[in-house]
Amino acid sequence: MDENILGIVAGILTSVSMIPQLIKVLKEKNAEDLSWTMILVLISGLSLWVWYGFIKDELPIILSNAFAVMVNIVLLICCIIYKKK
């Protein structure tokens, strides 16, 4: 198996993993059960993967993790908007 295909498939699967959670939060307008800390740590780690991808010039790493960063930033924004005070 071509290693780029493996990287692309792995990247797609991990990148879309938070989309069901994001859809649930948007539909219910409720983010009470989400951990800000977990999302911030995840965004930090994914951002480091993007940086690593640039260093290694690996497009699958860059694209998949950049997409995941964006999804999780939207989720963090939803946490800020929908968490009860």
From TrEMBL:
Cross-referenced Pfam families: PQ-loop
Subcellular compartments: Membrane
Keyword Transit peptide attributed: no
Record flagged with keyword Transmembrane helix: yes
Annotated membrane topology: Multi-pass membrane protein
Main location: membrane
Keywords: Membrane, Transmembrane, Transmembrane helix
Gene Ontology terms: cellular component: membrane
GO molecular function: sugar transmembrane transporter activity
TM annotation in the entry: 6-23, 35-55, 61-82
Protein's recorded name: SemiSWEET transporter
Originating organism: Chryseobacterium cheonjiense
